[in-house]
Amino acid sequence: MPPKERVSRVMVLDAAFEMTRECGFENVTARKLAQRLGSSTQPIFRAYENMEMLKEDLFYKSAELFSDHMLKARVKGKPVYLTMGMAYIELAKQEKFLFKLIADIDVYDTGDIHEFLQQGDIGELLENLPGTEKFTEEMKKEVFRMVWMFTHGVATLVVSRRVDMDEGEIEGMLKKAYEGFVKIS
Question: What is the mean pLDDT of residues 78-94?
């Protein structure tokens, strides 16, 4: 029977996730990760062929955190685009380094917003878009796409400190943008 692994793939991923949260992935090296785990670099490269593969798993773990956070943020009686958008921007501010990692979407095969809109559970979100009751499903998807792109742009600007806005200003912008997108659709 082979010896039991002291450092598992999950342990490597979890430690790298915490390090990325603290200082960004660009500062996560195999040596620093091994130090955090109290091991040599060998278990890291047994778990992951290279650091790029670890980065990919970190990307998906971070994206899942953001997705879960947005879905849990939905509040009965408030527009879904607003609660999810505000939750996304707030988490981006709180988790700046994880946001930076997931904002680099051209690196991994994550699909795009069109694929996200094909998922089964998106129907409930589309049904709850105010002012779109007479819209076709395709029109609702288009509004959702535009709102998502706007929200991601605001999050990027806020996190990079290109704009300084409080929560009320951001909420007001999201509402105005949404109303404009509904109007032009």
Answer: 93
